[in-house]
Automatic annotation (TrEMBL):
Matching NCBIfam families: dephospho-CoA kinase (TIGR00152)
Protein origin, superkingdom: Bacteria
Descriptive protein name: Dephospho-CoA kinase
The species this protein was found in: Shewanella piezotolerans (strain WP3 / JCM 13877)
Keyword Kinase: yes
Catalytic reactions on record: 3'-dephospho-CoA + ATP = ADP + CoA + H(+)
Subcellular location: Cytoplasm
UniProt cross-references to Pfam families, sorted A to Z: CoaE
Family: Belongs to the CoaE family.
List of residues binding ATP: 13-18
Annotated pathway: Cofactor biosynthesis; coenzyme A biosynthesis; CoA from (R)-pantothenate: step 5/5
Any one GO BP annotation for this protein: coenzyme A biosynthetic process
């Protein structure tokens, strides 16, 4: 059981997944908010049953999975419906993530949360780690990776906390503007630090 949780975050295109996987290579258990968010609305889940009851059965695909694009349409420009959905899902996601952290068989856990500060989930962790890159690089990498326009990327960046806000709140920062080899050294150093803090060196 892991009592020490590190919240890993970073803006879109910052390289959160790469950093998380480097920690995983060192034997650290990852609890990923995006994966948990899908799990809590999977077929047979309490979350999906509540969504179907609220929006109707046509919110499902033919295979019984949630039709995400239809759900997005329903809550787009509808604050009331969006608030209802967030009120349902956020507690379920939080509860599931904490349960997974408790069950983790590693000295500490990395909780990967894109909107760690924005959603107040930094309150659930003992330490926060920000993967930081410049907005220009963020835009370049995201456009190349997701084949989206500069405007779309700017909208996403604009909906997240500013770089300055995240930097001011983070306990630790990894600058991810260089090579993967440099990234690995930074992760190794932080892993040693976290093991020391949680008394497992």
């Amino acid at each position: 059981m892991a009592d020490f949780i590190v919240g890993l975050t970073g803006g879109i295109g910052s390289g959160k997944t790469t950093v998380a996987n480097l920690f995983a290579d060192l034997g650290v258990v990852l609890v990923d908010a995006d994966i948990v968010a899908r799990e809590v609305v999977s077929p047979g889940s309490e979350g999906l049953a509540a969504i179907v009851k609220h929006f109707g059965a046509d919110i499902l695909l033919s295979d019984g999975n949630l039709d995400r694009s239809k759900l997005r349409e329903r809550i787009f420009d509808n604050d009331e419906e969006r608030l209802w959905l967030n009120g349902l899902l956020h507690p379920l996601i939080r509860e599931t993530m904490l349960k997974k952290c408790k069950e983790a068989q590693s000295n500490y856990v990395i909780m990967v949360v894109p909107l760690l500060f924005e959603n107040g989930l930094d309150r659930l962790v003992q330490r926060t780690l920000l993967v930081d890159i410049s907005p220009q690089l963020q835009q370049q990498r995201t456009m190349a990776r997701d084949d989206v326009s500069a405007k779309q990327v700017q909208n996403i960046i604009g909906s997240q906390a500013t770089r300055a806000e995240k930097l001011s709140k983070a306990d630790d920062v990894i600058d991810n503007q260089g090579e993967i080899s440099a990234l690995k050294c930074k992760v190794d150093a932080l892993n040693s630090l976290y093991l020391k803090i949680c008394g497992n060196t």
